[in-house]
Amino acid sequence: MPLANGFLTPDQFAGEYFFDLAAGACPRCRHVQLVEQPERERMFHDRYPFFTASSTRMAAHFERLAGEIGASYLPAADPFVVEIGSNDGTFLRHFAQSGIRHLGIEPSASVAQVATALGVNTDCRFFDAALASEVIAAHGQAHAVIAANALSHISNPGAVVEGIKALLAPGGVCIVEDPYWGDVVEQTAFDQIYDEHASYFSVASVQYLFGQFDLAVFDLQRQPVHGGSVRYLIGHAGQHEVSARVSQGLAQEEATGLHRPEIRAAFQDRVTAAGRDLMALLGDLKRQGKRVVGYGATSKSTTTINHFGMTADLVPFICDTTPAKHGTFTPGAHIPVRSHDEFAAAYPDRALLFLWNHAAEVLAKERAFTAGGGKWIVYVPRVGEL
To answer: Would you state the pLDDT for residue 40?
Structure first.
C-alpha cells in the first residue's frame, strides 16, 4: 500500500513509496497494531495535508472537550494544559484565548505553523520522555494532558506513555481519544486501517498499556466521532475513583468475543465481501452510463481504493475541500483530486462517500445534490446507496 496521505503530482509517480499493510493482534495484552509502519518522518512532515479545522463537526467536538476540561479538571490557580498531536491548534486555541498556560506538541510543520499563527504555543517535535523532561523543566507538570487521535498514530506507544507519566501532575488527568477497535469490527470499517493508524485500541489494551507505567484508566466515554471512538480518562494509579464504566467496557469486550481470532476472521470475510459488492456496483453503473465521482480525498479512501483495485475509469476524480490536495493524485491508483467547485458545477449521478464518518455533516451540506436526484454510494457498514 502507499502512504494514505501521500497525495502526489505526476513527477512523483515513479518514486512513490509502498509498504506492506497488515495488522496483528497480541493474545496477551489484546492490542491490535500494524505489523510494519513506515518511518514517522515519511508520514508527518511539512507537507502533511490534514487540518482538524476543516471539519466543523470536529471543531465543535473539541470546543466541547475544552469546556469540559476547563470546568472539571483544571485547578483555579495557574493551570497548564498540554496536547500531544495538536495539529492546527483547533483544540488548544480555546485555552490560548482564555489566557490559560498551554503547549501543543505537533511534529508536522504544515499544521504546526497554522496553530502558531492562531496564537497557540506549539513545539514542532515528536513527543517522548526526553521532550517531557524539557517541558517540565520549562513549564512544570501539566494538570491535563490530551492526546486525541494521536496515540493511535505512534508505532511505539509505550515511549509516549512513559513521557505522559512524567509530565502529568499528581491528581492530573490524561485524556486519550481514538477510534475504537470494537466499532471498527462491528461496522466493518476496514478503511480505518492505514499507515498512520499504527494502533487499534480497545479498553483492555489501553488498560494494559497504561498499567505498565502505573497509570490507570478511571473512566470511559463513548464518542460518535470518527466512526465510533472511546475517550479514556487516565490518571496516576490510586488517585481517582474508578467508574463502573471501565469494568463494564472490559466485560462487554469479553462477552462479544472482540479479542477472539474467529471474530477477526469473520471481519476479514466481511471486508472481502464489501470489496466484491462495491466493485460490482461501480461496474454496473459504468455499464449503465452513470457518472460516479468520489467525495472526500481522505486517508481512508487510500485503503479502499487500493485494496479493492479501484481506478479512474470507474471514479474519474475525487472532490475535496482541502486546497493543498487540489491538482494532486490519490496515492497508488493516481485518481485526480479536484476542488469541490467541480463537483457542484456539474453534479454526477452518484457520489462515492469516502468521508462516511462525516456523513451527517456532508449530507446536510449537499442537499442540492440529493434534491436534484443524486445518490450517495456508501460501503460502511455495508455497500448500498442513500
So the answer is: 85
Question: For the chain (length 386 residues), average pLDDT per consecutive 10?
Answer: 96 97 95 93 82 87 94 95 96 96 96 95 96 98 97 94 98 97 97 96 98 98 93 98 98 97 97 98 98 97 98 98 94 98 97 93 95 97 95
User: Could you tell me the sign of the dihedral formed by the alpha carbons of 304, 111, 184, 30, in that order?
Assistant: positive
> What is the count of structural domains for the chain?
2
pLDDT for the residue 44: 86
Place of cell 460501503: 379
CA-wise closest residue to 103 among 58, 138, 52, 155? 138
Element housing 178 (H / E): strand 168-179
Q: What is the dihedral of CA 357, 67, 107, 10, to 10 degrees?
A: 30
Question: Per the domain annotation, does 312 fall within a domain?
Answer: yes
Inter-residue contact 146 to 77 (CB < 8 Å)? no
C-beta atoms surrounding 125 within 10 Å: 13
With contact defined as beta carbons under 8 Å apart, do 294 and 362 qualify?
no
* pLDDT at position 101: 98
pLDDT of residue 56: 87
User: Other CB atoms closer than 10 Å to residue 24's CB: what's the count?
Assistant: 11
Count other Cβ atoms within 10 Å, centred on residue 245. 17
Integer angstrom CA distances of residue 28 from 230, 237, 260, 263:
21, 21, 12, 16
| Closest to 182 (Cα-Cα) out of 198, 200, 206 | 200
Q: How far apart are CA 222 and CA 299, in angstroms?
A: 23
- Domain co-membership, 350 together with 245: no
Q: Looking at the structure, tell me whether residues 185 and 292 fall in a common domain.
A: no
Dihedrals phi, psi of 182, to nearest 5 degrees? -60, -35
Nearest Cα to 247, choosing from 279, 188, 203? 203
- Give a yes or no: residue 8 inside a domain: no
Rounded to whole angstroms, the Cα distance separating 213 from 166 reads: 10
Closest CA to 196 of 149, 146, 138, 153: 153
* Predicted model pTM: 0.92
